[in-house]
Design goal:
There is one protein chain. The chain is an alpha/beta fold. The protein has one domain: 3-Layer(aba) Sandwich (Rossmann fold). Helices cover 40% and strands 20% of the residues. It is built from six helices and seven strands; from the N terminus they run H-H-E-H-E-H-E-E-H-E-H-E-E. It has a seven-stranded mixed beta sheet, with helices on both faces. Helix 4 links the parallel strand 2 and strand 3. Helix 1 crosses helix 2, helix 1 packs across helix 3 and helix 2 packs across helix 3. The longest helix has 30 residues. The chain is globular, with a radius of gyration of 16 Å. The termini are far apart.
Length: 205
Amino acid sequence: MTEQDARQWIVDRWGDTAVARLECYIAMLVAENERQNLIASSTIKSIWSRHLVDSAQLIGLASDAPEGAWLDIGSGGGLPGIVVAILSDRAVDLVEPRRKRAEFLSQVIADLGLNAAVHASKVENLGDIAPPAIISARAVARLSAILQAAQRYAVASTLWLLPKGRSASEEIGEARKQWRGVFHVEHSVTARDSNIVVVRGVSRR
C-alpha cells in the first residue's frame, strides 16, 4: 500500500474532514518524535500506511462490537487509540504508563477535542473501570501476556483486537494453553505478512 493509497483508503471511509484531523495529529506526532521516541524515524515517510491505516482498520473489525468504550493498552504515541478517537464515535481510554507519553496524549486529546481519556499507569493498576466493549494493544506484549494483564476488565462480549504481525498463529497456540475463547486471524490491509488476532469470550482454563 503506497502513501497515496493509504490516505485515499481513509478518505473513502471517513471523508476529508477526518483526514484533516489526522493530518493535525500527524504534525503533533512527528514534532513530538523529536523529543521522545514515539515511532521509528524510518517509518515517518510511510506514516499513513504503516501507522494510520494500520490503526484505522481495527475500527472496521469492531463494527459488530457491543456499545461501550474502547480500551487501548500501551498507547505510546496514540496508535491506535488516538486514531480510533478521531475516526469513531466511541469513548476511548488510553493506557500509557510512561509519563511523558501520557502528557503528549493528553495534549493531543485537548487540542483535537477528542472523546478520550489518558490513564498514566500500567493496565494492571487501572482500578475499577466499566467493562470495555473493545480492547486493543499494538506492539505491546505477547498475546498471553496481554490477556493476563487485562482480562479482569473484560466480559464475555468484549472484543479483543490485537495486531500481531507474523507471529499471530504462534501466539494463539501459546495462549490457548492458558485461555479459552474464540480466536481467529484477520489479514492486515497494509501488508501481506501482517495479521490481527481477534478474540472473543476470553476466560482462563
